[in-house]
Amino acid sequence: MKTTKNKNLGNNNTLNILDSIQEVQVSPFFKNKVLNTIAQQKEVKEPSFSWFSPQLQLSSLALIICVNIGAIYYSFSSTETSQEQLSEFETFVQDYNLESTNSISIN
Amino acid sequence: MTNQEEFLEKLKSGSQAAFSQLLDDYQQKVFHTCISFVPNKEDAEDVAQEVFLEVYKSVSKFKGDSKLSTWIYKICTNKCLEFIRKKNAKKRFAFMQSITGNQIPMDKTNFYTEFNHPGILLENKEKSETIYFAINTLPESQRVVFTLAKLDGKSYQEIVEITGKSLSSVESIMFRAKKNLQKKLEDFYKNEQ
């Protein structure tokens, strides 16, 4: 009984040590250190494509999409023209006898 | 518009003068909280610095639901816990390595940081180290409440605001923390004898 009491007293004394902790002053350079770190981070974080604003990004994307849609539309709509071109090409080949002969002579 | 609101607006707009004022007002308080959680002056200063960087980055998102001081202490507590978690994980990893490898097993009572609290008197250093080690083994909620109340000297009302718990909950957590701590210290001294 006595020993338990002593142990509890010892524990309480141990915990009471926490009340005697003195206040520690922050380093006098702390403020400057923080301000410098913030300034450094600002410099580092300055993006190289700062001129490429979100509005510009959006309009560029819209332009690219338009160009792509135009290209797809053009390629589908020009199927007939390409056939005309093909026939013109065939007549050109025939006119100038540029057609390759399929017959192979075996000597 | 009150002075506090005006000051907050300046902070949100990124005013250097306002942030400098904030540092003047809070550097000692934040550092005190940090060193209460992390009993090493250099580490505590590093954590305090991270707290102010976080404040600077996120002040624009601060809605003013709570007091500015409460918000700063919340960040401070979270940063300290994050630091302790990381350091403890590193220690555990090193311990596992020492078991699996050929290194000499490290002392299990090794603390997550080098104990260097300039506010602790030399004759109390050993006992304080033991208490800090015991606090570190408490569940997180108990550790936070006990540290804020006993080591940082915050009132229960302030702890309620920081942790977002009710007053009765804070009181009961504190009671359990003290009880657990006494039990741990009792076991420690029993093993020592």
Low-confidence stretches of chain A: none
Topology, number of strands of chain B: 0
Fourth CATH level, the homologous superfamily of the largest domain in chain B? RNA polymerase sigma factor, region 2, helix turn helix motif
Strand-residue proportion of chain B: under 5%
* Termini Cα gap of chain A: 124 Å
The level of helicity of chain B is over 70%
Shape of chain A: rod-shaped
Name the overall outline of chain B.
globular
Main sheet of chain B? none
Straight-line distance between termini of chain B: 64 Å
Class from secondary-structure proportions of chain A: mainly alpha
Helix content of chain A: 55-70%
Please characterize this protein's 3D structure.
The complex is a heterodimer of chains A (107) and B (193). By secondary structure, chain A is mainly alpha-helical. Chain A is built from four helices and no strands. The mean pLDDT of chain A is 78. Chain B has 193 residues and is mainly alpha-helical. Chain B has two domains: 1-119, Rna Polymerase Sigma Factor, Chain: A; 120-193, Arc Repressor Mutant, subunit A (Orthogonal Bundle). Chain B has eight helices and no strands. In chain B, helix 2 (16-37) packs across helix 4 (68-100), helix 3 packs across helix 4 (68-100) and helix 4 (68-100) packs across helix 7 (156-163). Chain B is globular, with a radius of gyration of 19 Å. The termini of chain B are far apart. Mean pLDDT of chain B is 86; it is low at 102-108.
